Amino acid sequence: MLLQKQRKNNAGAKPGRFLITINVVGSSGPIRFVVNEDDVVAGIIDTALKSYAREGRLPLLGSDANNFLLYCANSESDVFGISVAALSPWEPIGGSRGRNFVLCKKQIQPQLSKGGTEMISDKRSASWKAWLNKSLNFKISSH
Question: Is the pTM of this model over 0.85?
Answer without folding.
Answer: no
